[in-house]
User: Which sequence fits this backbone?
């Protein structure tokens, strides 16, 4: 399980977690960069690595079932991103697909005594694909409270990563400063240097 510090890092186990929200990290789990295609859900072993890096433990006997559900949700997450960035309203079909996954989750309240005082606990039970259901819940919570103009696609000319800009000024341009931002700075530096000659 990644620590809080690792969850904030751009890359975990060599995989990008740049989206600013788990459902966006799922959308970014396959991409092309500089003509190379990457898919971290391509098979059960890669899905297990991605899930662990994302903070989800998956039983090995359920990997294929969980992976197929995550791949379907990834397609939906990308469609939702496109809908939101176009300024459109989600379709009834998109809402229905999310609700289908959300119906797998039951949250029950339970009181318990702790140090002589009553404390309220929440018991979370999932009857279905756990990873996709938890990511659908993240997406649903995001939809309930987000600023559409903060959803962005990386400005890098060969990058298609998506993210939610949580910065105070909403001026983030790249998926990650360490790669795409640095490439832009180097290209600008070289252009200025060649103009000066």
Assistant:
């Amino acid at each position: 399980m990644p620590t809080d510090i690792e969850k904030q890092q751009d890359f975990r186990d060599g995989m990008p977690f740049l989206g600013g929200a788990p459902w966006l990290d799922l959308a970014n789990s396959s991409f092309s960069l500089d003509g190379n295609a990457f898919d971290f859900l391509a098979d059960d072993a890669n899905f297990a690595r991605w899930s662990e890096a994302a903070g989800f433990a998956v039983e090995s006997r359920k990997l294929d079932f969980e992976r197929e559900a995550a791949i379907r949700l990834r397609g939906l997450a990308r469609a939702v991103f496109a809908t939101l960035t176009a300024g459109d309203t989600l379709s009834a079909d998109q809402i229905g697909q999310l609700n289908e996954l959300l119906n797998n989750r039951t949250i029950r309240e339970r009181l318990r005594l702790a140090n002589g005082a009553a404390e309220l606990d929440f018991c979370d039970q999932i009857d279905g694909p756990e990873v996709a259901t938890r990511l659908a819940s993240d997406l649903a919570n995001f939809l309930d409270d987000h600023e559409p103009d903060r959803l962005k696609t990386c400005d890098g000319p060969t990058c298609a990563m998506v993210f939610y800009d949580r910065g105070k000024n909403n001026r983030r341009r790249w998926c990650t400063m360490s790669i795409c931002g640095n490439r832009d700075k180097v290209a600008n530096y070289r252009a200025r240097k060649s103009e000066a000659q």
